[in-house]
C-alpha cells in the first residue's frame, strides 16, 4: 500500500524542481537588465504614473519573476505597487486582464511571447525578451531562397517571432542591400498598447500591411510555433520561407499548408452535421470578443441551431467531455489559440470563420482563412464575401423537412430545428417537444426547447435515484477533526479508523 498512498504531511512539504529551458537561463543581473529591458520598463511605468501594476509571466519565465520584481522595485520605490501574475486564465500569449482586475491594477507588463491582440481595458507594456540572432547569416540565407526563385519577386513580407523583433531593423537593411530589386515590407511591433473600446459595428482599426499591399513571398524568422502555423493558414496563396536562429536552418514551410487546411475542412464538415453548438469563451481581454459572441449567437439562431455559451478557462478534453449534448464547439480566442487540433477531444472545435462556412447552405471554400476578430465582424467580410459568410447563408430558406447529405457519414440526415417561429396556440407543443414524467406522482410536463433536456431523455443513466421516504436515515458518526495536513482521528472505540467525515 505504500506505493499507492502517502502521508498528508508529505503532500504539503513536497518540493517541485523547476527545469528552465531557454537562452535567458542563468543570466547575471546585468544580463537580466538588458534581456528583459528593465530600464525601459521603469521609464514607461514612471511616465504613466500608475498606482498598481500587474506583471504577467508565462510558465517558462516564472523562475525569472522574483529577480525581475526586485530589479523593478529597487528602481521604482514604493510606487507603483507591483503584483506578479502566474497561471493565466487562458493562453499565456494573451494579456490576462481578468487576473489583473483581482488586484485592481491600472496597467500591465506582459513578459514573453505575445499574440499582440488588442486589449479592451488596460494599457500594456510588452517585454518580449531579446533572443540572440545572427542578423547577417539570417539575411544571407533568406536572400538565397529569393534569388533561387524562377521568377522575379517584387514584394516580400518579413515576419519575426516577437523575441527577435529587436533585430528587425538590421535584418531588413541587410536584406535590402542584397535584394536590391525587391521591396521588403515590415511593420514594427508596438512596445506599448493602449486599450481599444470595441463596438458591435466597428470594423478593423487599421488595415494590416500584408492586406494593403500585394505580397509575393513571406519570410519568417523564428522556430516552430502557433504564430508560424497561423501565418501558413492565413496566407495559403504565398510561399513561406523560414529561418530558425537557434540552429541557423532555413526551409520552405508552405508544404504544410495543404495538410493544415484539409484538416480544418474536415472540422467544417463535422460542424455542418451539428445541431447543438457550444460557444467557448477563450479570452476575456481581446477587444471585440463580446460583439463576436453576440454575432455567433445571432447566426446560429437564424440557422435554427441551439447554442450554449461556456467559459471553462484553459481547455482540456476532460472539461469539454462534461457537455455531451453539445455536438460541436466554437472557440472565441486570440488568433494563436483559435486553431485547435481536436484529436483528443470528443467533439470538433472550429473557429468563428469556419462556423460561418459550415452554416452556408452551399459552401464554397476558396482557401481564404480568417482568424482576426475584426475581420469576422467587419462589414466588408460579412457583406462582400457572400460565399463564405454567415449572413447570406441561405439556411433560413432551407426546408426543415428536406434531408441533408453528410460527407462524414455518407448518409442523409434530418437536421433538428431549435428556436423556430412561435406557435399561434401557446398551448400547442412544437414538433420538437416531448412529454416526460415530471415527478413520482406521474404528473406530465412538456419539455421546453432545450437540447440538454432532450439529450437527457436518451441516456440510460440519468443520475442517482433520490428514493425520498424509502430508506431509513443513517446514524450520525463522529468524523475527523483538524486540518488536512494532520487530521485527529476518533479513538474512543480503540480503532484508528476515522469513520465518516
From TrEMBL:
Primary localization:
cytoplasm
What are the GO cellular component annotations?
A: cytoplasm
Q: Where is this region: Disordered?
A: 381-403, 470-501
- Report the cofactors: [4Fe-4S] cluster
User: What InterPro entries does UniProt report for this protein, alphabetically?
Assistant: DHP2 (IPR010014), DPH1/DPH2 (IPR016435), DPH1/DPH2_1 (IPR042263), DPH1/DPH2_3 (IPR042265)
Question: Which pathway does UniProt place it in?
Answer: Protein modification; peptidyl-diphthamide biosynthesis
Query: Which domain of life does this protein belong to?
Result: Eukaryota
Would I find Hydrolase among this entry's keywords?
A: no
Entry GO MF terms: 2-(3-amino-3-carboxypropyl)histidine synthase activity; iron-sulfur cluster binding; metal ion binding
GO annotation terms (biological process): protein histidyl modification to diphthamide
Q: Which residues cross the membrane?
A: none
What keywords tag this UniProt record?
Cytoplasm, Iron, Iron-sulfur, Metal-binding
Where in or outside the cell it occurs: the entry states: Cytoplasm
The protein's job, in short, is: Required for the first step of diphthamide biosynthesis, a post-translational modification of histidine which occurs in elongation factor 2. DPH1 and DPH2 transfer a 3-amino-3-carboxypropyl (ACP) group from S-adenosyl-L-methionine (SAM) to a histidine residue, the reaction is assisted by a reduction system comprising DPH3 and a NADH-dependent reductase. Facilitates the reduction of the catalytic iron-sulfur cluster found in the DPH1 subunit.
State the family it belongs to: Belongs to the DPH1/DPH2 family. DPH2 subfamily.
> Which PANTHER family does this chain map to?
2-(3-AMINO-3-CARBOXYPROPYL)HISTIDINE SYNTHASE SUBUNIT 2, DIPHTHAMIDE BIOSYNTHESIS PROTEIN
Spell out the subunit comment. Answer: Component of the 2-(3-amino-3-carboxypropyl)histidine synthase complex composed of DPH1, DPH2, DPH3 and a NADH-dependent reductase, predominantly CBR1.
What protein am I looking at?
A: 2-(3-amino-3-carboxypropyl)histidine synthase subunit 2
- The organism is Cristinia sonorae
Amino acid at each position: 500500500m505504500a506505493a499507492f498512498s502517502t502521508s498528508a504531511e508529505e503532500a504539503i512539504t513536497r518540493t517541485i524542481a523547476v527545469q528552465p529551458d531557454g537562452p535567458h537561463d542563468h543570466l547575471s543581473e546585468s544580463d537580466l537588465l538588458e534581456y528583459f529591458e528593465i530600464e525601459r520598463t521603469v521609464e514607461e511605468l514612471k511616465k504613466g504614473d500608475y498606482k498598481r501594476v500587474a506583471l504577467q509571466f508565462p510558465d517558462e519565465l516564472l523562475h525569472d519573476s522574483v529577480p525581475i520584481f526586485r530589479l523593478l522595485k529597487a528602481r521604482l520605490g514604493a510606487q507603483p505597487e507591483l503584483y506578479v501574475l502566474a497561471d493565466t486564465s487562458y493562453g499565456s500569449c494573451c494579456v490576462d486582464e481578468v487576473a489583473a482586475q483581482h488586484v485592481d491594477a491600472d496597467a500591465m507588463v506582459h513578459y514573453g511571447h505575445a499574440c499582440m491582440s488588442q486589449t479592451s481595458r488596460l494599457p500594456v507594456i510588452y517585454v518580449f525578451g531579446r533572443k540572440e540572432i545572427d542578423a547577417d547569416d539570417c539575411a544571407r540565407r533568406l536572400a538565397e531562397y529569393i534569388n533561387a526563385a524562377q521568377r522575379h519577386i517584387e514584394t516580400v513580407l518579413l515576419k519575426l517571432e516577437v523575441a527577435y523583433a529587436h533585430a528587425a531593423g538590421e535584418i531588413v537593411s541587410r536584406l535590402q542591400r542584397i535584394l536590391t530589386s525587391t521591396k521588403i515590407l515590415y511593420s514594427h511591433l508596438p512596445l506599448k498598447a493602449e486599450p481599444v473600446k470595441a463596438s458591435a459595428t466597428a470594423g478593423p482599426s487599421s488595415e494590416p500591411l500584408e492586406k494593403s499591399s500585394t505580397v509575393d513571398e513571406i519570410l519568417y524568422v523564428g522556430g516552430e510555433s502557433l504564430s508560424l502555423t497561423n501565418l501558413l493558414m492565413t496566407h495559403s496563396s504565398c510561399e513561406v520561407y523560414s529561418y530558425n536562429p537557434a540552429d541557423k536552418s532555413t526551409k520552405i514551410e508552405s508544404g504544410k499548408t495543404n495538410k493544415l487546411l484539409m484538416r480544418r475542412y474536415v472540422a467544417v464538415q463535422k460542424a455542418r452535421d451539428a445541431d447543438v453548438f457550444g460557444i467557448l469563451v477563450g479570452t476575456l481581454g481581446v477587444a471585440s470578443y463580446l460583439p463576436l459572441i453576440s454575432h455567433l449567437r445571432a447566426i446560429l439562431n437564424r440557422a435554427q441551431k441551439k447554442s450554449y455559451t461556456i467559459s471553462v478557462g484553459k481547455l482540456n478534453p476532460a472539461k469539454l467531455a462534461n457537455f455531451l449534448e453539445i455536438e460541436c464547439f466554437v472557440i472565441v480566442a486570440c488568433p494563436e489559440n483559435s486553431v485547435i487540433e481536436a484529436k483528443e477531444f470528443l467533439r470538433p472545435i472550429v473557429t468563428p470563420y469556419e462556423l460561418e462556412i459550415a452554416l452556408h447552405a452551399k459552401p464554397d471554400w476558396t482557401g481564404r482563412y480568417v482568424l482576426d476578430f475584426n475581420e469576422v465582424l467587419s462589414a466588408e467580410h460579412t457583406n462582400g464575401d457572400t460565399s463564405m459568410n454567415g449572413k447570406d447563408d441561405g439556411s433560413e430558406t432551407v426546408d426543415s423537412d428536406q434531408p441533408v447529405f453528410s460527407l462524414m457519414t455518407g448518409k442523409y440526415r434530418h437536421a433538428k430545428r431549435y428556436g423556430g417561429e412561435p406557435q399561434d396556440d401557446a398551448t400547442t407543443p412544437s414538433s420538437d417537444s416531448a412529454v416526460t414524467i415530471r415527478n413520482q406522482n406521474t404528473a406530465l410536463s412538456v419539455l421546453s426547447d432545450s437540447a440538454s433536456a432532450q439529450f437527457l431523455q436518451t441516456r440510460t443513466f440519468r443520475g442517482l435515484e433520490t428514493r425520498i421516504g424509502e430508506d431509513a436515515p443513517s446514524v450520525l458518526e463522529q468524523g475527523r477533526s483538524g486540518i488536512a495536513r494532520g487530521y485527529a482521528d476518533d479513538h474512543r472505540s480503540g480503532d484508528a479508523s476515522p469513520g465518516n467525515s
